[in-house]
C-alpha cells in the first residue's frame, strides 16, 4: 500500500483536520525529516490552501481544531498547534492552546518552522549571499574549513545536504561532511 492509502485507512477516508471527505491529499508536515505515515496528514484542499497561504485563512473554518487537536497522531497535533498559534489573535484559539498538551519532542517539531513566534523573536539563518536558509536545504562550502577537534578539512565546493539549523543562533548550521556531523558558520556557505 502507498502512503495515500495508509492515511486514508488511518483517517477513515476524511480530512484529519476538519473531517471533510472530498479532494483529500497527503500533506507532509514540515520540516520533513521523517515524512511517511508518522510525518504526514491527510488533508482536504481547503485546509491545505489555508495552511500554505496564511493570508487566506478563514478562522471559522479552523474551529474544527477543537476536535482534531486531540488526535492520537503527532503530525495532526503539530498542524493543529501551528494553526491555533497562527489564529491566536482571534481569542478562542488561545483557549484551545491553553488546554493542549504536546510532549517535548512533538512541541519541538511544532515550533521547528517558527510558527507561533513573534517576528522579532525568530532566528533567521542566511547564507553568504543573504539568502534565507531552512531546515533540509542543501548548501555548498565557499572556502576550505578546518574542523575543530579533528584533522579533517572540509574542502571548498563540498556539498552539505539536508542541513539543520541552530534555533538559538543564526550564525550556525549543522550538516554532514564526509560522514561526520559538523557545525558550520553560515557565512561560509552558499545555498544550492
UniProtKB/TrEMBL annotation:
It holds the Pfam family YjdM. Residues 6-52 form the PhnA protein N-terminal proteobacterial domain. It comes from Flagellimonas aequoris. InterPro entries: PhnaA_N_proteobac, YjdM_C. This is PhnA protein.
